[in-house]
Protein backbone atom coordinates (compact mmCIF):
# COMPACT_ATOMS: atom_id res chain seq x y z
CA UNK A 1 0.00 0.00 0.00
CA UNK A 2 2.79 2.39 0.79
CA UNK A 3 4.36 1.83 -2.64
CA UNK A 4 1.16 2.91 -4.33
CA UNK A 5 0.86 6.02 -2.17
CA UNK A 6 4.54 6.85 -2.75
CA UNK A 7 4.13 6.57 -6.52
CA UNK A 8 1.12 8.86 -6.54
CA UNK A 9 2.98 11.40 -4.38
CA UNK A 10 5.90 11.35 -6.81
CA UNK A 11 3.51 11.73 -9.74
CA UNK A 12 1.76 14.61 -8.00
CA UNK A 13 5.11 16.31 -7.36
CA UNK A 14 6.21 15.77 -10.96
CA UNK A 15 2.94 17.19 -12.30
CA UNK A 16 3.67 20.85 -11.46
CA UNK A 17 7.25 20.52 -12.71
CA UNK A 18 6.06 19.07 -16.01
CA UNK A 19 3.42 21.80 -16.27
CA UNK A 20 6.05 24.48 -15.60
CA UNK A 21 8.41 23.01 -18.25
CA UNK A 22 5.52 22.88 -20.72
CA UNK A 23 4.53 26.50 -19.98
CA UNK A 24 8.10 27.75 -20.33
CA UNK A 25 8.58 25.91 -23.64
CA UNK A 26 5.30 27.33 -24.98
CA UNK A 27 6.31 30.85 -23.94
CA UNK A 28 9.73 30.41 -25.55
CA UNK A 29 8.11 29.15 -28.78
CA UNK A 30 5.68 32.10 -28.73
CA UNK A 31 8.50 34.65 -28.60
CA UNK A 32 10.50 32.68 -31.15
CA UNK A 33 7.53 32.80 -33.53
CA UNK A 34 7.07 36.53 -32.90
CA UNK A 35 10.74 37.15 -33.88
CA UNK A 36 10.37 35.47 -37.28
CA UNK A 37 9.73 38.62 -39.39
CA UNK A 38 12.59 40.56 -37.78
CA UNK A 39 15.54 38.89 -39.54
CA UNK A 40 17.91 41.84 -39.30
CA UNK A 41 17.39 42.24 -35.55
CA UNK A 42 17.75 38.50 -34.99
CA UNK A 43 21.10 38.48 -36.83
CA UNK A 44 22.28 41.57 -34.94
CA UNK A 45 21.57 39.69 -31.70
CA UNK A 46 23.53 36.72 -33.01
CA UNK A 47 26.47 38.94 -33.89
CA UNK A 48 26.38 40.30 -30.33
CA UNK A 49 26.47 36.70 -29.04
CA UNK A 50 29.42 35.99 -31.37
CA UNK A 51 31.32 39.00 -29.99
CA UNK A 52 30.61 37.93 -26.40
CA UNK A 53 31.83 34.40 -27.20
CA UNK A 54 34.96 35.68 -28.96
CA UNK A 55 35.80 37.99 -26.04
CA UNK A 56 35.29 35.11 -23.60
CA UNK A 57 37.62 32.79 -25.56
CA UNK A 58 40.19 35.57 -25.94
CA UNK A 59 40.01 36.46 -22.24
CA UNK A 60 40.33 32.83 -21.08
CA UNK A 61 42.98 31.99 -23.71
CA UNK A 62 41.56 28.52 -24.16
CA UNK A 63 38.68 26.40 -25.43
CA UNK A 64 40.12 26.33 -28.93
CA UNK A 65 38.83 22.82 -29.55
CA UNK A 66 35.31 24.05 -28.68
CA UNK A 67 35.75 26.92 -31.14
CA UNK A 68 36.99 24.52 -33.81
CA UNK A 69 33.99 22.24 -33.30
CA UNK A 70 31.73 25.29 -33.43
CA UNK A 71 33.37 26.38 -36.69
CA UNK A 72 32.86 22.94 -38.27
CA UNK A 73 29.22 22.91 -37.19
CA UNK A 74 28.63 26.43 -38.56
CA UNK A 75 30.26 25.42 -41.86
CA UNK A 76 27.85 22.48 -42.06
CA UNK A 77 24.91 24.82 -41.43
CA UNK A 78 26.17 27.22 -44.12
CA UNK A 79 26.32 24.41 -46.68
CA UNK A 80 22.73 23.47 -45.87
CA UNK A 81 21.70 27.12 -46.17
CA UNK A 82 23.35 27.53 -49.58
CA UNK A 83 22.15 24.20 -51.01
CA UNK A 84 18.87 23.61 -52.83
CA UNK A 85 16.23 21.41 -51.23
CA UNK A 86 16.40 18.93 -54.09
CA UNK A 87 19.92 18.50 -55.40
CA UNK A 88 19.67 17.67 -59.13
CA UNK A 89 23.03 15.93 -58.92
CA UNK A 90 21.91 13.44 -56.29
CA UNK A 91 18.16 12.99 -56.55
CA UNK A 92 16.17 12.79 -59.75
CA UNK A 93 12.78 14.20 -58.82
CA UNK A 94 9.38 14.67 -60.38
CA UNK A 95 8.96 17.91 -58.42
CA UNK A 96 10.36 21.35 -59.17
CA UNK A 97 14.03 21.38 -60.17
CA UNK A 98 16.50 24.15 -60.75
CA UNK A 99 16.57 25.29 -64.39
CA UNK A 100 19.73 24.16 -66.17
CA UNK A 101 19.12 25.85 -69.53
CA UNK A 102 17.85 29.28 -70.46
CA UNK A 103 14.74 27.76 -72.06
CA UNK A 104 13.77 25.88 -68.88
CA UNK A 105 10.82 27.06 -66.86
CA UNK A 106 11.68 29.24 -63.85
CA UNK A 107 11.63 27.36 -60.58
CA UNK A 108 12.15 29.30 -57.35
CA UNK A 109 15.15 28.45 -55.21
CA UNK A 110 14.09 26.51 -52.13
CA UNK A 111 16.79 26.04 -49.50
CA UNK A 112 17.57 22.77 -47.79
CA UNK A 113 17.89 24.75 -44.54
CA UNK A 114 15.54 27.77 -44.34
CA UNK A 115 16.88 31.08 -43.03
CA UNK A 116 15.02 30.93 -39.72
CA UNK A 117 16.23 27.43 -38.90
CA UNK A 118 19.74 28.45 -40.00
CA UNK A 119 19.64 31.45 -37.64
CA UNK A 120 18.18 29.45 -34.78
CA UNK A 121 20.76 26.64 -35.06
CA UNK A 122 23.55 29.20 -35.50
CA UNK A 123 22.53 31.10 -32.37
CA UNK A 124 21.91 27.97 -30.33
CA UNK A 125 25.40 26.69 -31.25
CA UNK A 126 26.99 29.91 -29.96
CA UNK A 127 25.00 29.69 -26.72
CA UNK A 128 26.04 26.05 -26.15
CA UNK A 129 29.68 26.83 -26.95
CA UNK A 130 29.58 29.80 -24.58
CA UNK A 131 28.25 27.63 -21.75
CA UNK A 132 30.96 25.04 -22.49
CA UNK A 133 33.63 27.69 -21.83
CA UNK A 134 32.69 27.60 -18.14
CA UNK A 135 33.69 23.93 -17.73
CA UNK A 136 37.41 23.20 -17.64
CA UNK A 137 36.97 19.64 -18.95
CA UNK A 138 36.29 21.12 -22.43
CA UNK A 139 39.53 23.12 -22.38
CA UNK A 140 41.73 20.58 -24.18
CA UNK A 141 45.24 21.97 -24.73
CA UNK A 142 45.90 22.20 -28.48
CA UNK A 143 48.10 24.27 -30.76
CA UNK A 144 45.35 26.55 -32.10
CA UNK A 145 47.13 27.83 -35.27
CA UNK A 146 47.00 24.32 -36.74
CA UNK A 147 43.26 24.09 -36.06
CA UNK A 148 42.73 27.51 -37.61
CA UNK A 149 44.71 26.61 -40.74
CA UNK A 150 42.88 23.32 -41.08
CA UNK A 151 39.50 25.05 -40.73
CA UNK A 152 40.43 27.69 -43.34
CA UNK A 153 41.52 24.97 -45.81
CA UNK A 154 38.29 23.06 -45.15
CA UNK A 155 36.23 26.24 -45.63
CA UNK A 156 37.95 27.15 -48.92
CA UNK A 157 37.60 23.65 -50.36
CA UNK A 158 33.97 23.35 -49.31
CA UNK A 159 33.02 26.78 -50.64
CA UNK A 160 34.84 26.14 -53.92
CA UNK A 161 32.82 22.96 -54.39
CA UNK A 162 29.58 24.76 -53.44
CA UNK A 163 30.26 27.65 -55.85
CA UNK A 164 31.06 25.18 -58.64
CA UNK A 165 27.70 23.50 -57.92
CA UNK A 166 25.94 26.89 -58.09
CA UNK A 167 27.58 27.69 -61.42
CA UNK A 168 26.83 24.24 -62.88
CA UNK A 169 23.13 24.37 -62.01
CA UNK A 170 22.77 28.15 -62.46
CA UNK A 171 21.24 29.18 -59.16
CA UNK A 172 21.91 31.98 -56.72
CA UNK A 173 20.93 31.21 -53.13
CA UNK A 174 20.38 34.86 -52.26
CA UNK A 175 17.67 37.22 -53.38
CA UNK A 176 18.64 40.87 -53.23
CA UNK A 177 15.25 42.20 -52.24
CA UNK A 178 11.88 41.92 -53.87
CA UNK A 179 11.45 42.90 -57.51
CA UNK A 180 9.58 46.20 -57.58
CA UNK A 181 7.41 47.70 -60.28
CA UNK A 182 8.78 50.98 -61.62
CA UNK A 183 5.69 52.84 -62.80
CA UNK A 184 7.63 55.84 -64.17
CA UNK A 185 9.55 53.78 -66.67
CA UNK A 186 6.40 52.01 -67.82
CA UNK A 187 4.43 55.25 -68.10
CA UNK A 188 7.15 56.97 -70.17
CA UNK A 189 7.30 54.08 -72.62
CA UNK A 190 3.50 53.99 -72.92
CA UNK A 191 3.35 57.77 -73.52
CA UNK A 192 5.92 57.38 -76.32
CA UNK A 193 3.75 54.72 -77.95
CA UNK A 194 0.67 56.99 -77.74
CA UNK A 195 2.52 59.86 -79.39
CA UNK A 196 3.34 57.67 -82.43
Automatic annotation (TrEMBL):
<keyword id="KW-0812">Transmembrane</keyword>
<dbReference type="GO" id="GO:0006890">
    <property type="term" value="P:retrograde vesicle-mediated transport, Golgi to endoplasmic reticulum"/>
</dbReference>
<feature type="transmembrane region" description="Helical">
    <location>
        <begin position="65"/>
        <end position="86"/>
    </location>
</feature>
<dbReference type="GO" id="GO:0000139">
    <property type="term" value="C:Golgi membrane"/>
</dbReference>
<feature type="transmembrane region" description="Helical">
    <location>
        <begin position="142"/>
        <end position="159"/>
    </location>
</feature>
<keyword id="KW-1133">Transmembrane helix</keyword>
<protein>
    <recommendedName>
        <fullName>Protein RER1</fullName>
    </recommendedName>
</protein>
<dbReference type="Pfam" id="PF03248">
    <property type="entry name" value="Rer1"/>
</dbReference>
<keyword id="KW-0472">Membrane</keyword>
<comment type="similarity">
    <text>Belongs to the RER1 family.</text>
</comment>
<feature type="transmembrane region" description="Helical">
    <location>
        <begin position="40"/>
        <end position="59"/>
    </location>
</feature>
<dbReference type="GO" id="GO:0005783">
    <property type="term" value="C:endoplasmic reticulum"/>
</dbReference>
<dbReference type="GO" id="GO:0006621">
    <property type="term" value="P:protein retention in ER lumen"/>
</dbReference>
<dbReference type="InterPro" id="IPR004932">
    <property type="entry name" value="Rer1"/>
</dbReference>
<comment type="function">
    <text>Involved in the retrieval of endoplasmic reticulum membrane proteins from the early Golgi compartment.</text>
</comment>
Amino acid sequence: MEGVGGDSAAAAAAGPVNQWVHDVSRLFQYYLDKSTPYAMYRWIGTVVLFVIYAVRVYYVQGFYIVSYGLGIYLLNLLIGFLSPLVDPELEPSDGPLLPTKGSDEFKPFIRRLPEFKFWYSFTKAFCIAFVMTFFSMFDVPVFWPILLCYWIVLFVLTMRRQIAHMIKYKYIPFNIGKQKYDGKRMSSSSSNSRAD
